[in-house]
Design goal:
The complex is a heterodimer of chains A (138) and B (170). Chain A has 4 helices and no strands. Chain A is mainly α. In chain B, strand 4 and strand 5 form a beta hairpin. Classes of the chains: A mainly alpha (138), B alpha+beta (170).
Chain lengths: 138, 170
Amino acid sequence: MKKGLALEPLDVDLMIDGRDMTQDEREKLSAFIEKNKPDARLKKKLDALRKRLGQLPSAPTWKELIAAQDTRKDDDVLDLEHSVEAAISGERDLSATDRRRIAEKIERYRTALDTDMRRAKKSRRAPLVQRARAKVKR
Amino acid sequence: MAGLSIEIDKLTNSIEHAKSGEAFDTRVVRVTKAERTKIRKKDWSFDWRAELDKDERHVLGLVTVHEPTVLQGLMSMEDRRDHVFLHLIESARSNLGTGKIYVGVPGNLVAYACRESLTYGHDGVVSFVAKTKLIVHYQNTLGARLLGGGRMTIDPPKAFELVERYFRTA
């Protein structure tokens, strides 16, 4: 089930004009919104959805999320390390869950590494391209 | 309770690694003025620091759960009396062009804007001024309606679809 793909074509460089609406445009929009109010059936569905969303936490600040993730990651890694140590010392074998988690971690690190490498490659390439363009202009 | 809330709040299969096709869970975060130095100007086309300085605007970023320190996209929006207005949306440079790392970043952010509009009590209505060449594109992908002069709006039925599609709320 790849729900996100439906909007994939939105990956264009700049989506929005970057200008604000004029006062006149805003008024026209308000009139449009007023005219196109949802009917009773949709309103009921929207209200139910809003109620469900209201029970969810609002977006954390970037700083809060990083702090929370770090703590969670530490616990997770520590837990897994204990399992691996126990397996190495022969105390007990790795469970199927441990194996799956290790495989997931390897995959995550591989992806992250790939991401970093591509990012690094791009940032190295950029100045070269700029210099080459400048040379052509001269 | 908090753990459970976090679990159901995540976006569903929201962005995909372009190369492997693997789906990554994402989170939308509020970027505050305190974090303005972390947004390097050279990494973005728009002046996001200026956006952060405007008090009436909210700057939101999209990060993956496994890499929360890296912003995959940014959006600036404003709550207006009867709708949410999108001032800017931008994908990180690494997510643009043929060598992009992740696909699906802007769609997530637009869906989040609809969600915010819904929670503000605006029935999910989101408006923005589209670039001329992208108007048809937004009509096809988002179901946005053109009001003239590049002004587009996502109306309640489409907003409902988007929020339901992107957020696991039940």
